[in-house]
Amino acid sequence: MLSDMGQGRLWRRSVQYVLLGACIGILMLLLVYPIMLTVRGGFYEDVARREGFTLRHLLLVFEDPRLREGLFNSLRLAVLTTISAILIALPLAIVSARFRFPGKAFFSALVLVPLILPPFVGAIGMRALLGREGALNALLGTDFDILGDARIFGVVLVQAFSLYPIIYLNATAALANLDPALDEAAENLGASAWKRLWSITLPLVRPGVFAGGTIVFIWSFTELGTPLMFDYPQVTAVQIFNGLKEVETSAKPYALTVVMLATAIMAYFLGKYLFGGKGYAMYSKASRAASEKPLTGGMGLLACGAFALVSFLALLPHLGVILTSLSGTGQWYKTVLPSTFTTDHFKEALTASDSFTAITNSLKLAFAAMLVNIAFGIVISYILVRTNVRGRNILDALTMLPLAVPGLVMAFGYVAMSLRWPFGDGPLGDFASVIAVDPNPVPFLIAAYAVRRLPYIVRSTVAGLEQTSGELEEAAVNLGASRVTAVRRVILPLIVANLIAGGLLVFSFSMLEVSDSLILAQKTEDFPITKAILAFGDRLGDGPHVASALGVWGMALLTVTIFASSLLLGKKLGSIFRV
Fold this sequence. Notes:
By secondary structure, the chain is an all-alpha fold. The chain has one domain (16-44, 68-322, 344-576): MetI-like fold. Helices cover 72% and strands 1% of the residues. It has 27 helices and two strands. The chain has a two-stranded parallel sheet. It is globular, with a radius of gyration of 25 Å. The two termini are 47 Å apart.
């Protein structure tokens, strides 16, 4: 006979395995299954009947010169964006980690600001600034068609200055973990500053830079909104988007999506093999603040100037969006600044039926995704940190998978899922559908938002649990509290800041989610904010101005949430954007 203590342990172990199985099952259904449907669709002989197996559709992708060009352009965009983002972020991260200079706290916060605006919204501002009739040509008296002749330049520019904070956050987190004694020992042996940088610092932070670079590469490789805004359709993401209408009868969009997924995975593993390297354990993690050297005079001003210049260039799209939203309709044409200013577009963005509905939809969807993720994230994080059940490594990998899988692939997977039983013509067709006479994409949008942003809440909650001693929970249990009560009354109040920070990130990034919104919402009454911005951007007259006003409202929301999360999480914010 088992003792009461033994029975309690067996019961607790059984509950842990049940929770583990439930979490893995949910992720298999909402994450792995849509991906599998997309991959399987690329190999069907007959897509309409879902029969047969063939490689012909995949081969046709590489035989079609237009599709080959799109894939090449997507890779070129991703490589150029990633390299540009690293060149922007890494020097700033090294300066921030090694030196103290005037205004460092301000500039360290300012460097996060580009995250508050999706790149495709910033494209509106860049068109106003760099277009043929834009502010730059008006200022210089020239007639350059920068974005018309080289749209790829505009896409890379907007994406690099929007995404470099992801690499900056990862690099600063990696630099914070370095033992200053290593650098001091090399200096004592006569190594110059450049020698120490190339031989010690960069090799040690390479895994962190790779982690951020991976996110930037996949993000820019599969970015849909920015090429659409720049009218640059010769990329794979836009070709998949345009092929959505053929999804029920043609395997081409499936095959394109499979190629995109396979390319992203191969690029990730190739980069990990070439650049990722292994992490190096530090025997000591001395205070970085204690090892920071002060920069005064000209060097201090140079450091401030570097941060100020990058911040200014990164904020140019935001400035363009703000000025476009304040410009009178048709009143910013071949002038440095708008000829007239108005706030009517902000009013239109909040009161017009289409835009108001879009804002309401996004608020509801983002709030629902946040609540789902907080509840789900607590369970997952508890299993990862407080248990040692077999299989939790699988759960951890599944939780992080959305960071490595292109959002466009996930969105397309939900479209494929909506065509299958029990959706489509099945019993749940009225409950959730994407492509139908009367679609209801809300359940799929909530699921897509929640799954895509799940890593944020899990990494944030894991960080809180790792800093909270498990002895507090055990003490409460020993005093008679149930395990659930101990977690609810003792642990959750101690990690509430982490939950709030992760929840804010889930909410804000869901509000301005691009790929899922553009693909899953097909009717005007279902449009979230980002789909409404795209629709307004294509509308003549005041369309771009209203789209910009919607973007400014989104910027205001993300500004508050990013800064709040940064204050609550500190340097651990970087671990959220890491594969």
